[in-house]
Amino acid sequence: MSGCGCFPVNLERSSRKGSIKSSKGSNSSVKETEKNQSLVVCFGEMLIDFVPTVGGVSLAEAESFKKAAGGAPANVAVGISRLGGSSAFIGKVGEDEFGHMLADILKQNNVDNSGIRFDPDARTALAFVTLREDGEREFLFFRNPSADMLLNEKELDTDLIKKASIFHYGSISLIDEPCRSAHRAAMDTAKKSGSILSYDPNLRLPLWPSEEAAREGIMSIWNDADFIKISEEEIKFLTKGDDPNDDSVVREKLFHPNLKLLVVTEGTKGCRYYTQEFDGQVPGVKVEAVDATGAGDGFAAGVLKNLASDLNLYKDEKLLRETLLFANACGALTVTERGAIPALPTKEAVHKILEKVIQ
Question: By C-alpha distance, which of 95, 92, 10 is closest to 47?
Answer without folding.
Answer: 92
